[in-house]
Amino acid sequence: MKIRSSLFAVMLCALPCIQSIAAPVNDEDRISVDIRRTTFLVNDIDTSLQLYRDALGLNVIYDQMINSPMENGEIRKRRLVLMQANDTFIGALGLLQYIYPEKPQRQEKFDEPVPSDPIMVMNVSDLDTRWKSVEQSPKVAVIEAPHHVEYPRADGGKIAVMVSMIRDPDGYWIEVNQLLDAPAKASD
After folding, report:
1. Secondary structure class of 58 (helix, strand, coil)
2. Contact 92/106 with Cβ under 8 angstroms?
3. CB 101 within 8 A of CB 113
4. CA–CA separation, 163 vs 41, rounded Å?
5. Which helix (H) or strand (E) holds 7?
6. How does DSSP assign 87-134, residue by residue?
7. DSSP label at 24?
8. pTM of the model
9. Contact in structure between 10 and 113 (CB atoms under 8 Å)
C-alpha cells in the first residue's frame, strides 16, 4: 500500500506531463530551450529494444557504434540507439551501452522511486492491447498493472487515466499510461 500511495504522489506531481495531445508553442511564447532527448545508460541495448521498440513501438532513427580514443591509447566503444514516437524534434529516447570499458553498476535498489530516480511517462492510445507485450518483455518488472486513476482539475472536474508502472531491464521507472479524458492544461 505504501508503494501505491507513494507512486500516486509522484504521478500527481508529474500530472503536467500527462498532456498527450501536444501543440507547438506560438513563436511569441517560445523560450530558448528545447528538451530534445532523454538517454538511458543500459547494460544490453538489444534487451532494452525488445521493450521500447518491439513492445512500445518507438521508431529507431539512429543505431551506431561510436568509437573514440582514450588517453591510454585504447578505444572507447559505445553503441547509441535513438528512438522517436510521434514528434521528430522533441521526445526522443536514447539508449547508450558502454561496450568498452564497461561502466560499474549502481548497487542500491529501492521498491519505489526516490530522489535522483527519473520517471519517464509515456502515453499510449492502445494500452489495453499493448500491455501484454510490455509486461512480457525480457527483464521488465511490473510494479503496477494498468488501473483507473482520476486526477483533480482546478475547476473541480477530473482527468481519468489508465496508469501502469514498470521498471525496465536496467531499473528505470516507466509509466505507461492511457489518457481517457481531455489532457491537463495550464489552468489545471
Report:
1. coil
2. no
3. no
4. 25
5. helix 2-13
6. -SSS-EEEEEEEEESPPPPP----SS--TT--EEEEE-S-HHHHHHHH
7. P
8. 0.81
9. yes
Q: Which residues of 138-162 are buried (b: 16+ CB within 10 A; e: fewer)?
A: eebeebbebeebebebeeeeebebb
What residues have CB less than 8 Å from 80, skipping those under 6 apart? 39, 62, 63, 64, 66, 94, 95, 96
All domains of the chain in start order, with CATH:
36-103+112-179 (3.10.180.10)
User: What string of pLDDT tens digits covers the 188 residues of the chain?
Assistant: 444 444 444 444 444 443 445 677 888 988 888 888 999 999 999 999 999 999 999 999 999 999 999 999 999 999 999 999 998 878 899 999 999 999 998 888 888 899 989 999 999 999 999 999 999 999 999 999 999 999 998 888 999 999 999 999 999 999 999 999 988 777 76
